[in-house]
Amino acid sequence: MGIIWNADSMLGWIVMAVNFGSVILYGAMGEILTEKAGHLNLGVPGIMLCGGISGFASTFLYEQSTENPSKFVMLLLGLVSSVVAATLAGLIYAFLTITLKANQNVTGITLTTFGAGLAKHFGSVISAKSGSTAIRSAVADDVFNAKIPFLSTDLGVVGKLLFNYGFLVYLAVILAVLLQLFFYRTHQGLNLRAIGENPGTADAMGINVTRYKYSAILAGSAISGIGGFLYLVINNVQWSTALDIEGMGWLAVALVIFATWKPVNAIWGGYLFGFLSKAGAYAPTFITGITISQNIWSMTPYIVTIVVLIAVSFRMKKESRPPAALGTAYFREDR
Amino acid sequence: MAQTKTAKEPFVHVIRKEDTPMLKKWLIRIFAVVAALIVTGVLVFAVTGINPFKIYSSMITGSFGTPRRIRNTIKLMTPLLCLGIGLAPAFKMKFWNIGAQGQMLVGALAASFVALTFRHLPGGLLIPLMGLAGLLAGAIWGVIPAIFRAFWNTNETLFTLMMNYIATFAVMYSVDKWKGESSGFASFKQIAKNAVMPAVLNENFYICTAIVLLLVCLMYIYMKRTKHGYEIAVVGESEKTAVYAGINVKAVMIRTILLSGAVCGLCGFLTVSGIDFTLSSTMNNGFGFTAIVVAWLAKFNPFTMIGTSFMMVFFQNAASEISSMNANATEYLSYVISGIILFFLIGSEFFINYRLVFRKNHEKEGK
């Protein structure tokens, strides 16, 4: 067994890792926001699929219906429609688990099945109508994958490493930092965390538990939805049923734990998950004499997540633990 | 609650009710299903243009249209019911085992490994050996999260969820390795004849169905009539009460999840030996997750699960029937349809467990 260094391949691997990592990061940020409100939403993969298909369908159909599609309209359509669809999917979950106090696991899993079915259905119907299995919106690809001029081309390796992504990748980092500031530096963030730890106490403090929960879950779903659309963007805005948005969604649920519920940790954690999930394609150029199957590489993010989950429960540090009220419905009269 | 006359008194408030009569419970649920069917009909009509009444009649023919379809319905129900039975004691204890999928997969993996390794043993010896391997593998896969939950309070929902994906990739890896040069994992009917469950009335899966029905009875007795079952119920109600009552919560938890995982592992064995005759990471199309819904809807009662697992298969069959009707309908509609029906059923539980009280001294005098 030996190791060969191949700079070009490593660069490709890292760029891939950051792109896919950002998809997972969006999903995870949405889920962190949701879990901070005390709700475990296993519907994230379904929400991401809804966001993805909605963003794709609107940009694709717009491009098909107009002679000269406007880039600005394309930008708005892609983002707004993925956010709206994801928020609506989140609303189903929010209504059932907050207002109707339904079991969160059952509701979440049903939402994933439902969302995946909806997305794949509309995807296949649009494919069948346009008579091709690989349908693509070229203008949306131009818009969302536009690279920063000069910086991405003229700075050599540094430029390719740092400035070679669509704007959604940078937005993810900014959003993660803002989310972190929101949780730990604002009054509202403190209130939200209080609800996730003990909704009864938060309620007694005069915090409107229901309003906070709805806001957190809907905003979280919207953020996750952008992740679903980003997955299509990094695949050149091309839809096929082979796309594995669902797998990315489950990695996002794992990333929340890996990041110990902190958005800033999820940035590098997401890139690491992206790196590991693409290892099957790239690692063979670096490691000789032994082949490690893609399936083994694909396992690793889940294994490290379990290790983190265990480590977190061993340590007494409270801020690294899951929110105490995670997964339980809040009913005022049960206090 | 005192009716304080303040400006902020909510228009409606919610109180818990414990004593909903059986008849009313079922009326609420039936109402939910009917409402869901109307929504489904309208939605499918809007999307595909198929007449809603044709959709409803295809639901019946999808599951009962021909003797072959009836057999197929039973064949699909068998593993789903088995997984539901496996989850019942865990959920009753409020241990959210989301890992049935993984426990089933490792059970299937272990059974397949035994089948391939000892393929020359006579069936009467090989099949029980495979079953044992499946049981053990599922139990081990389940008990790892349970041990961490019992001793260090590690979140079991997240842990068991992660274990599913490790199991999925382990099966994909093994299938890749064992299939050799061929394009897919060959049927046991070709490569390990002795590992195939003997056929009764021309169908191999009937023995599996019989085993699962036996498990339904045994699990019912275990949960309702034994000391173990009582302990599970107490731990599920409140761990603190259980400690006061002198129950060893850690032991009960580990014991129960060993059983839960073992039954899910057994389902993996039944699937490879009597239903699919092959190993695949997509076996039983994600029933490990569907079973969570089956068990929860049945309120963890094994006999009720026969009904709920039938319902899930029924809607799945219906949708595959609808999907062949025109170009706007696809196989994926089945997930949409069962999703809508489940949302309604999940929501209807609220009206069984809670009651709405409207504000008094208002134009809309209500109770």
What's the gist of this structure?
With 335 residues, chain A is mostly helical.
Task: Quote the distance from N terminus to C terminus of chain A.
Answer: 61 Å
Number of strands of chain B: 2
Give the overall silhouette of chain A: globular
Write down the overall mean pLDDT of chain B.
Answer: 87
Rounded to an integer in angstroms, the radius of gyration calculated over CA atoms of chain B is 23 Å
H and E order of chain A: EHHHHEHHHHHHHEHHHEH
Percent strand of chain B equals under 5%
H/E topology pattern of chain B = EHHHHHHHHHHHHHHE
Q: Could you say which structural class the secondary elements and strand pairing of chain A correspond to?
A: mainly alpha
What is the largest interface, and how many residues per chain? A-B, 52 and 49 residues
Fold and architecture overview:
The complex is a heterodimer of chains A (335) and B (367). With 335 residues, chain A is mostly helical. Helix content of chain A is 72%, strand content 2%. Chain A contains 15 helices and 4 strands. Chain A has helices at residues 7-36, 44-65, 71-99, 104-129, 138-144, 151-154, 156-162, 167-185, 187-197, 199-204, 209-234, 245-258, 263-277, 279-282, 294-314; strands at 2-3, 135-136, 238-239, 287-288. In chain A, helix 1 (7-36) runs parallel beside helix 8 (167-185) and helix 1 (7-36) crosses helix 13. Chain B is an all-alpha fold and 367 residues long. Chain B has a domain at 85-302. Chain B has a two-stranded antiparallel sheet. Chains A and B meet through helix 3, helix 4, helix 12 and helix 15 of A and strand 1, helix 6, helix 12 and helix 14 of B.
